Amino acid sequence: MRVASTSTGAPNPVGVENHQIRRAPVPRQRPLTPRSFPKRHYVCVHGVELDQFGDVVDARLRAWNLAYEELRTKPVAMHQSVRDTYFAPEIAIDFVSRAWRAGSAQQVFELTPATRDRYRPDGAVAYFNVLWQRVGDYVVEVGNDLTEVRMLQMQLKDHESASATAMQARIVAQERERIARDLHDSVIQQLFASVLLLNSLAGNSSSPDCAQATQRVAETLSQVITEIRECILHVRETIPSSLEMELRDVVGFLVGATATRFVVDIADDVRCDGEIRSNIRAVVRESATNAVKHGHAENITISVVRSGYHVIVYIADDGVGMPDEPSASSGLSNLRGRARSPRRVNDREAA
Fold first, then answer.
1. 243-347: which CATH number, 3.40.50.2300, 3.30.565.10, 3.60.15.10, 2.40.128.130?
2. Which SUPFAM superfamilies does this UniProt record tie to the protein (predicted)?
């Protein structure tokens, strides 16, 4: 915990003269203890610097809790300038200015590998909802970690997608059954009646040429009947596979937040129902996140192939690899659980 007791001199913002700066006084306040806020939920207090027109030109740190200190990669010190220490300082100053004028402002801030020189995210990507609140002559910054909430939202989206896929499969199966029934009960019967009629005409015809032509037509129709019956018996589900699109959506948040490049390759003979698709998405999300978070991978290849009655997911990357003793939080236990359960996707660990 740090609390300012006096105001010290500090470099002026660029283009602002000494007589143009007014620093707010430091109030008496209780220290902010780490127990006051949950871990990963930080709070800090900024003293605001205004120019001669009353516009915010900078803000300097006056107090903070332990979570804020742990989030920053560089040492935290009293009177640190937002303009000098924050990632995208102009954006931060803009939110300070909004809070100063309107009383409060809300910001959603993502911590990614691009911000690692300033912040220390607990994972590949972290999402914070930041409240900038004016309190007297100060602006308080409160950051709430929303990473778990965002992950839960993505999982919910996966479940909704799996339910929609299952419903679509049921509708298509019902329609296929209706078409097969109509073909058998109506079309085949009519064709068969036509074959009988043609055979009868061929047998009663006095012209050999006409009888021969009629017989050829009857044989052709018989062949059509055979082919239709084979289609009914061996018809396959032909729903266009959108698994590649689903997996690209799964890794989309990593593509947008990191410099990692992804290649997704789905074999043509892969057919999955909603349950298998849901497990493949979960495996790919967990594995890709681990590759970026723990392995610092820059290139990841995701391949899905079929081997007999099994669907195999291969994930290869150019990261540093798994540690000798991976922690329980790596998610490997969840991946193995999905792979070994009935009707679940198999996972293979690439060397």
1. 3.30.565.10
2. ATPase domain of HSP90 chaperone/DNA topoisomerase II/histidine kinase
In contact, 257 and 112? CB cutoff 8 Å = yes
Question: Residue 90 above 90 pLDDT?
Answer: yes
CA–CA separation, 108 and 145 (whole Å): 10
CATH architecture of the domain formed by 10-145 = 2-Layer Sandwich (3.30)
**Would the CA dihedral through 211, 217, 220, 224 be positive or negative?**
negative
Write out pLDDT tens, residues 131-150. 999 999 999 999 888 777 76
Instruction: Kindly provide the residue ranges of all beta strands, DSSP E only, lying in the chain, ordered along the sequence.
Output: 2-3, 22-23, 42-50, 56-64, 104-111, 126-135, 138-145, 261-266, 299-307, 310-317, 346-347
Could you give the CA distance from residue 139 to residue 43 in angstroms, rounded to a whole number?
Answer: 11
What pTM does this model have? Answer: 0.40
> Domain-by-domain residue ranges, the chain?
10-145, 150-234, 243-347
